[in-house]
From TrEMBL:
Ribose-phosphate pyrophosphokinase N-terminal domain sequence ranges: 6-120
GO cellular component, one term: ribose phosphate diphosphokinase complex
InterPro entries in UniProt: PRib_PP_synth_CS, Pribosyltran_N, PRTase-like, PRTase_dom, Rib-P_diPkinase
Protein name from the UniProt record: ribose-phosphate diphosphokinase
Length: 310
């Protein structure tokens, strides 16, 4: 008989972790985090994890304390003799630093991968990496889950006629094509030029959207500059409506204001990153049940290929 796994989470991911644990059918493990007056902290497992599997849940969105807390938890589990240490990172922070795009810059995603391995993680589970090649930065198994398994059925249920899938940039063209394949729809690409990060110089659309209901697909929405500019441009090009589905709602800076004032009918995100008091236009789909099912299969050494809809 396979012993039960134990589920713990960093403090900022407690809400999604509790949903996962409930869907998994098991209560959260007991742990405490001691804080020093200077801001230093120390996580501590308040129950044995010796010889078993632990699922440590934590998105690594800023602040950097989220990443540090996850690393400390992994190290604590290793030193407490856990046999299997699975780091569940719904949102993999620093994934945009997947290559040297100019001289004298780090490859941050590779560094994070090595830090997780050094801390003691034996497996990583994450959703919609910004760049697929990040999986190759690891020497341990990586379960790369796609939000399309949640988004595709949701889009189908909208019953939109004359559907067109759009990518807000060239980098997302593969993702948009995969969605278009599953939804049997047309696809267009928005081409943008940047002068610097988070600042768009100009944007054009490759393809025809006149008289179409357009759904923009992306892995994340940060400042919302690209997405809202794309939505407004598509409406100007004759689109009947524009919606957006983005896995990770980073939503920094003026994102909320831009979304509210844009031509977007709605934005659908997942709860990989916690948010409160979202504008009416933003809807949230939970990843809890999907991850819980995969966690259960991983723990019982069952195939998880049925959960991957790229």
């Amino acid at each position: 008989m396979v012993p039960s796994a134990k589920i713990f989470a960093v403090r900022s991911s407690q809400r999604i972790a509790e949903k996962m644990a409930k869907a998994y059918g098991q209560p959260m493990g007991v742990m405490e985090v001691s804080e020093f007056s200077d801001g230093e902290f120390q996580p501590s497992f308040e129950e044995t994890v010796r010889g078993g599997r632990v699922f440590l849940i934590g998105s690594t969105n800023p602040p950097t304390e989220n990443l540090m807390e996850l690393l400390l938890m992994i190290d604590a589990a290793k030193r407490a003799s856990a046999k299997h240490i699975t780091a569940i990172m719904p949102y993999f922070g620093w994934a945009r630093q997947d290559r040297k795009d100019k001289p004298r810059v780090p490859v941050g995603a590779k560094m994070i991968a090595k830090m997780l391995e050094t801390a003691g993680a034996t497996r990583v589970m994450t959703m919609d990496l910004h760049a697929d090649q990040i999986q190759g930065f690891f020497e341990i198994p990586v379960d790369h889950v796609f939000a399309s398994s949640l988004f595709v059925p949701h889009i189908k249920n909208l019953g939109l006629s004359d559907l067109t899938i759009a990518s807000p940039d060239m980098g997302g063209s593969k993702r948009a094509n995969n969605y278009a394949k599953w939804l049997e729809s047309e696809v267009v690409i928005c081409y943008k030029q940047r002068k610097k990060a988070n600042v768009i110089d100009k944007m054009t659309v490759i393809g025809n959207v006149e008289g179409r209901n357009v759904v923009l697909i992306d892995d994340m929405i940060d400042t919302a500059g690209t997405l809202t500019k794309a939505a407004d441009m598509l409406i100007e090009q004759g689109a009947l409506s524009v919606r957006a589905y983005c896995t990770h709602g980073v939503l920094s800076g003026k994102a909320m204001e831009r979304i509210t004032n844009s031509k977007l009918e709605e934005l659908v995100i997942t709860d990989t990153i916690p948010h409160d008091n979202l504008p009416e236009k933003i809807k949230v789909i939970s990843i809890a049940e999907l991850f819980a099912n995969i966690m259960h299969k991983v723990h019982h050494h069952e195939s998880i290929s049925s959960h991957f809809l790229e």
